[in-house]
Amino acid sequence: MFRFIVKRLFGIIPTLLIVSILVFLFVHMIPGDPARLVAGPDASYEDVELVRQDLGLDKPLVTQYFTYMSGLFQGDLGTSMKTKRPVFDEIADRFMPTFWLTIWSMVWAIIFGLLIGVISATKRNKWQDYTGMFTAVSGISLPSFWLGLMLIQLFSVQLGWFPTGGNDSWTSYILPSITLGAGVAAVIARFTRSSLMDILREDYIRTGRAKGLKENIVVWKHALKNAMIPVVTMTGLQFGFLLGGSIVVETVFSWPGLGRLLIDSVSYRDYPVIQAELLLFAFEFILINLIVDVLYGIMNPQIRY
């Protein structure tokens, strides 16, 4: 297992290099002139050219890329064109709000998703199954921006239970975490139901029941453990999507996270911030895939070989 982890860690390096090239090219293809935005709408052509030289945008793309990568290997993510602050500080200030929002969204999504999936699988074609799958389909189908606006209208505007935005207290996490985790909970429920139904047809499950094991022990201890392998894969990917893709929810709830920072950076053509965030999202996905593979080996020792 240790050798496998080391190999995967070394495999991250070429992947990130390829991603860095693609991100750099795509970012510079965004329409608009960042030098003009920095200089201001009333700046003269000469002033814009001076700003362009100061930002290094007058150099060839190849030179800009190697300059950027040289700083990256030294731990320098560059300086924000908008705020003139180090990009590392910009991301560090926004990372924890997004991280904790993602954590709370995943916690309740996993709990409710597994519960609905197990109940639907064990009560197949009964009212519990139909209710659970109706809830799951609704969670997948409802757009996150619409769900967020409806929750704000009901629980913030009309009832006044929760704030409409920001992250000033723990109550601020409730509505955005529900909005962000609704789709994930629905997907987990459907995956759990499908996987568990297949496992419950296996011979060793019939043997356990024939030996007189209680149904709860058969389902929760023996069947669910083996049914969790595809669920873990999907959950890991969903965690990566939430951590890097909560842009809509953060915009609806005025959440000071990475999603809002990315939107603001794209609007301002802040190349260093955009590149750093996209590379961070790519690294998160790669790291999460590694963690999922390690969990495979823990859950099923046969996979180690």
Structural write-up:
With about 300 residues, the protein is mainly α. The protein has two domains: about 1-75, no CATH class; about 95-305, MetI-like fold. The chain has helices at about 1-30, 35-40, 45-55, 60-75, 85-120, 125-140, 145-160, 175-200, 205-210, 215-245, 245-250, 260-270, 270-300. The termini are close together. Keywords: Cell inner membrane, Cell membrane, Ion transport, Membrane, Nickel, Nickel transport, Transmembrane, Transmembrane helix, Transport. One of its GO terms (cellular component) is plasma membrane.
State the helix count. Answer: 13
The CATH superfamily of the largest domain is MetI-like
User: Whole-number radius of gyration?
Assistant: 24 Å
Shape: flat
Explain briefly what this protein structure is.
The chain is mostly helical and 305 residues long. It contains 13 helices and no strands. One of its GO terms (molecular function) is nickel cation transmembrane transporter activity.
How is the secondary structure organized here?
Blueprint: H1 2-28, H2 34-39, H3 45-55, H4 61-73, H5 87-122, H6 127-141, H7 144-158, H8 174-199, H9 203-210, H10 215-245, H11 247-252, H12 258-268, H13 271-299
Helix pairs in contact: 1-13, 5-6, 5-8, 5-10, 5-13, 6-8, 7-8, 8-10, 10-13, 12-13
